[in-house]
C-alpha cells in the first residue's frame, strides 16, 4: 500500500500538468539530438542560414514522400529513384558541399559505364562476344586467349554496324543498372553474380597500363569536382599489362598509384592526396594469405607514404572468415593496419557476422560496412569505446540485395547512437551513382532522422578526415584545409541558387 | 613515448598468444548470449534434449538457406515462402510447443479466408457485386443499403454457377495473399488499402450477432489447438446486428465477448481466458476520443474482469498522433491502462515514430509493434528500465510493407539487447498465417540469431504471460499452469516424431 501511495505521488509529481509532460517530452528529444551523430555541433549564424535553406528543402521532400507513400522513393529499389535524385534541391546542396574524403571505394568500380564505353574507342582493343558475355583485351595482335566466337578489333566491328546501338548494347555489360531490379536481382546470389561479372569484364580494360594511369587520374579529378579532397582506395592490385603482352608484377600497380597521386597533387596542389588499402580476395587459404601479407609488407616498405593498410574483400558470405587466419593476422597486426570488411551480411549468428568480432579484436582501424553490427550491441559499444569508424555504403547495400527500403538500413540507428561513421560509395560506377553525393543524399534524406540537419553532414565530412589513415600532422593539416573549404562554402552559399 | 610503451605492453599482454585471443573472443560470445532474450535461462537435462533436436533441425534449415541464397526464403516476400514453412521440422516443434498467450491480435483478422467463405454458406446472406468489390449482409429481406448492381441471396447465386469457381473468386476478397506481392503491393499504400478493404468486407459477415459469437468461440478453440492458453484481443467493438436489421449498442459487443469467454472456459477449464483491449480508429478528433474514453470506462465498470485497457488503431502514418490528445490521455491514464500501437512505421523523426515517446510517457503497459524504436536508443533504454513489453508482429510488418527481408527486422536487435518482447500475429487470418506458430517460426529462424535456441522460445512464451494484463494472482496461476504444460511437452518430446 505504501508503495502504491508513493507511486501515485511520484506519478502526480511527474505528470501533474500537461506542462510537466511537455518538458519531459522535450528533454527526450533534446537528449536524442545530443546523442546523435553531429548533434552537439554548434552552428555559426552563417551555417544556420545554410541549414535553414537545406532543411526547408529537406522537409519539403520528406513531407512529399510521407504524404504520397505510393511514390515514396525509399520504398523501392535504388534504381527506381536514382534519376529522381538529380532533381532534388537537397542533392544539389550536398553536391556543392565539401564532403571531406572517400574512405571506402574499390578502384575498378568507381567510374561508370559511359566512361568505360568511351575507353573502348581504341584502335588496339580486341573484343570477343560469347554467350551473354564479352571479353576485351588491348593488344597489338589478335589475343591468343580463348574465345568461343572470334576476336575482332572493336572499332572495326563498331564501324561495321550502327554505332549507337553497338555502344548501347556494349554498355549493358558494364553496369548493374537494370529497369526491373526486383526481377533481375531477387536475391544476393543474382546481384553478386552480375557484380563479379562486371569486375571480370572491366578489369581487362582498366589494367592496360596507360588506361590504368589515365583512369586513376580521372578518378581523382572526378572526386575533386565533387568536392572530395582525399581518397583511400582499396585495390586487389591487379597485374598491369602492355600491348605486347608484357605483364607487370603486383608492386608495379602500387608504384603506378604513387606516380599518379604525385602527378595529380602537382597539378592540383589543394588536393590532399590518396592512400592505398591493399585488399585482395577473401576466398583464400592460409598460404595465399601469407603471400598477401608478404606483398603488403613489401609495398609498405617501399611506399610508406601511400600505403594505408590491409583488407580482404569479396562476397563475405562466400569467403573465408577471419577466424580461419587468427595466428597469421595477429602476427601481422604488429606492422600492418587493418581496414577489414566485416559483417556485410543479413545473416546473424554465423561466421560472417562473426567477422565483426575478429575485426575488432584484431585491432582494425576502421571496419568496412559493418552492416550486421546492429545485431551485436556489445560490438557497437566496443567500436564507440575504441573509436573505430564504420565505413557505411548505403547504396551499395541496397543494390547488392542486403536491404530494399533504405529506411530499414541500420545506419539510422548508428546515427542515433552517435557511432563513429564515415559514408562512402563502395563501387559507385558499377551502379552509376555519383562518387559520393548520391550516398550522402540517400543517407541524409532516406536514412537519417527527418530532423537531422547540416550538423550531421558536417560531422560526416569531418569524420572522413578524422578516421582517415593520415598521420596526425597530415590529419591536422587536412582538417584545417577542410575548414577553409567549408567556410568558403558557407560564406558563398546562396539559397536562391537552389 | 611512455604512453606508447604502455600501449604496446598492454597489447602484448592481451594478445600475447592465440589462446588469449580465443578466450577474449569466447567471452564476447558469452556476454552476447547472456544479454540476449532468454540467454540466462538454464535448461534442464530434458529440456536440453529437446533443444538438441530443435537446434539440429534449425542449423540444417539455416545452413541450407545460407548455402543457397537463391532459394533463401527470407530474402523474399512472406507470401513466397509461406507454404514452405509447413514442411519445416522446426515449425512442427514450435506448433506443438506451449506458447503462452497471444497479446496483440485484432478480432476481425484472426480466422482466414477459408473460414470466412464457409460462413457464406447461409440461406440468409445477401451479396452485391460492385466493381472490384463485394458487399455482404445477413438479412431476412433484401437489404436496403445501396448496391451498384443488385442484392442477391448468395446461395442462390452460388447454386446457379460453378460452386468451386464461385468460392475461389469470392475467397480473393477475404485475403491479402497474392501470388505476386512485389507487384501488387509495391508500397505501404497498396497493402494497407487492400487491408482496409478486407476489414470492410468481413465486418458485415462477422458482426451478424450469431456469427460473432460462433466466430469468437472458434478463435479461442483454434488458439487452444495451437497450444496458446490465453488471449488479449483488440477490438473496435463494432455494432452487432440481427437479421431484422436491429443494431446493438457497442457495449453489447463487449458483453458478447464476456459471454463467450465464460462459455469457452466452462467447456475447456484448462484455458486461462481472454481479455479485451478496446482499440478504435486513430483517425479521430478530440471529441471522438472523449467518446471512446467514456465508452472504455463504461465497459471497465461493467466488466472489470475482462476489460484490459485502451488503444488506438489504423495505419499509423495516416492517423492522429498521440501528441494531439495529451491532456485527455493524461487524465484518462488515471483509470485506464494503455496498450498503444506506436512506431509502426518506417519513418524516422516524424510524429509517427514520435508516438513511441508519448506511449512511454503516458505509461503504456505494453506497446503495439514499436517497429521504429530501433531508431530511438534512449526509448529502448526506457522500455527496458520501465519493463514495458513490445508486442512484435514480424509477419504483419512484412506483409504490410514495412520490411521485405525479415532478417532486417529490428526484432533481431531487440532480441540481442534482451528488450522485453512478446510475439504476436496481429491479423493472421488476413494473410492466411497460423494464429501464432508462423510468427514464432519466422522470428526464431529468420530474425533471431542462428545460435538462439529453446531458451529464446521459452522466454517468449513466459513473457506473453508475464506482460499480460492478468492481475498478479491470476498471473502467478497462469505461469504455473504454463509450467505444467511446458514440462509435459518436454517430458513427452520425441525427436523421432519430427
Structure overview:
Two copies of one chain form a homodimer. Chain A has 498 residues and is of the alpha/beta class. Chain A has three domains: 1-35; 80-110 and 188-489, TIM Barrel, CATH 3.20.20; 114-174, no CATH class. Chain A has 21 helices and eleven strands. Chain A has helices at residues 2-15, 18-35, 45-67, 78-85, 89-96, 113-119, 154-159, 163-171, 181-184, 188-206, 209-225, 250-267, 286-302, 326-332, 351-361, 377-385, 394-399, 411-417, 437-447, 454-466, 472-492, and strands at residues 100-106, 125-130, 133-138, 152-153, 228-235, 273-281, 307-313, 341-342, 366-369, 389-392, 421-423. A four-stranded parallel β-sheet of chain A has the order 1-5-6-7. The first copy, chain A, has a four-stranded parallel β-sheet with strand order 8-9-10-11. In chain A, strands 3-2-4 form a three-stranded antiparallel β-sheet. In chain A, strand 5 (228-235), helix 12 (250-267) and strand 6 form a beta-alpha-beta unit. In chain A, helix 5 (89-96) packs across helix 19 (437-447) and helix 11 crosses helix 12 (250-267). The interface between A and B is large, with 64 and 64 residues.
Write down the Rg of chain A. 24 Å
Distance between the termini of chain A: 64 Å
The tally of beta strands of chain A, per DSSP, is 11
Placed side by side, the strands forming the largest sheet of chain A appear as 1-5-6-7
Largest sheet of chain A: 4 strands, parallel
Average pLDDT metric of chain A:
95
The CATH homologous superfamily of the largest domain in chain A: Metal-dependent hydrolases
Amino acid at each position: 500500500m505504501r508503495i502504491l501511495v508513493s507511486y501515485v505521488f511520484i506519478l502526480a509529481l511527474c505528470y501533474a500538468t500537461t506542462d510537466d509532460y511537455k518538458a519531459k517530452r522535450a528533454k527526450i528529444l533534446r537528449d536524442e539530438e545530443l546523442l546523435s551523430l553531429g548533434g552537439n555541433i554548434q552552428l555559426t549564424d552563417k551555417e544556420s542560414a545554410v541549414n535553414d535553406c537545406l532543411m526547408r528543402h529537406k522537409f519539403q521532400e520528406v513531407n512529399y514522400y510521407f504524404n504520397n507513400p505510393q511514390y515514396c522513393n525509399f520504398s523501392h529499389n535504388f534504381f527506381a529513384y536514382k534519376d529522381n535524385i538529380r532533381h532534388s534541391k537537397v542533392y544539389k546542396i550536398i553536391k556543392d558541399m565539401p564532403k571531406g574524403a572517400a574512405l571506402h571505394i574499390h578502384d575498378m568500380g568507381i567510374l561508370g559505364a559511359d566512361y568505360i564505353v568511351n575507353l573502348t574507342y581504341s584502335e588496339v582493343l580486341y573484343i570477343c562476344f560469347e554467350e551473354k558475355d564479352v571479353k576485351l583485351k588491348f593488344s597489338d595482335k589478335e589475343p591468343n586467349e580463348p574465345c568461343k566466337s572470334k576476336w575482332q578489333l572493336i572499332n572495326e566491328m563498331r564501324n561495321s554496324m550502327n554505332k549507337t546501338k553497338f555502344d548501347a548494347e556494349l554498355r549493358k555489360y558494364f553496369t548493374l543498372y537494370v529497369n526491373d531490379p526486383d526481377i533481375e536481382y531477387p536475391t544476393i546470389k543474382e546481384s553478386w553474380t552480375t557484380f563479379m561479372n562486371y569486375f571480370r569484364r572491366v578489369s581487362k580494360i582498366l589494367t592496360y597500363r596507360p588506361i590504368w594511369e589515365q583512369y586513376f587520374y580521372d578518378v581523382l579529378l572526378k572526386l575533386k569536382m565533387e568536392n572530395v579532397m582525399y581518397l583511400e582506395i582499396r585495390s586487389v592490385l591487379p597485374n598491369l599489362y602492355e600491348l605486347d603482352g608484357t605483364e607487370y608484377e603486383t608492386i608495379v600497380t602500387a608504384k603506378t598509384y604513387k606516380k599518379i597521386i604525385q602527378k595529380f597533387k602537382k597539378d592540383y596542389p589543394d588536393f590532399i592526396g590518396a592512400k592505398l588499402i591493399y585488399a585482395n580476395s577473401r576466398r583464400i587459404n592460409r598460404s595465399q594469405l601469407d603471400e598477401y601479407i608478404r606483398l603488403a609488407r613489401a609495398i609498405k616498405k617501399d611506399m610508406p607514404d601511400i600505403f594505408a593498410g590491409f583488407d580482404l574483400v569479396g562476397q563475405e558470405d562466400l569467403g573465408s572468415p577471419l577466424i580461419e587466419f587468427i595466428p597469421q593476422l595477429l602476427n601481422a597486426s604488429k606492422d600492418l593496419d587493418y581496414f577489414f570488411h566485416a559483417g556485410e551480411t543479413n545473416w546473424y549468428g554465423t561466421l560472417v557476422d562473426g567477422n565483426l568480432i575478429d575485426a575488432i579484436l584484431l585491432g582494425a582501424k576502421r571496419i568496412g560496412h559493418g552492416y550486421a553490427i546492429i545485431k551485436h550491441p556489445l560490438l557497437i559499444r566496443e567500436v564507440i569505446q575504441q573509436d573505430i569508424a564504420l565505413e557505411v555504403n548505403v547504396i551499395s547495400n541496397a543494390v547488392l540485395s542486403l536491404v530494399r527500403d533504405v529506411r530499414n538500413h541500420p545506419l539510422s540507428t548508428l546515427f542515433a547512437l552517435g557511432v563513429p561513421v564515415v559514408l562512402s560509395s563502395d563501387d559507385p560506377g558499377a551502379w552509376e551513382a555519383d562518387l559520393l553525393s548520391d550516398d550522402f543524399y540517400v543517407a541524409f534524406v532516406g536514412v537519417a532522422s527527418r530532423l537531422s540537419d547540416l550538423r550531421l553532414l558536417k560531422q560526416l565530412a569531418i569524420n572522413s578526415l578524422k578516421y582517415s589513415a593520415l598521420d596526425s600532422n597530415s590529419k591536422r593539416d587536412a582538417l584545417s584545409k577542410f575548414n577553409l573549404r567549408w567556410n568558403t562554402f558557407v560564406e558563398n552559399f546562396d539559397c536562391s541558387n537552389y
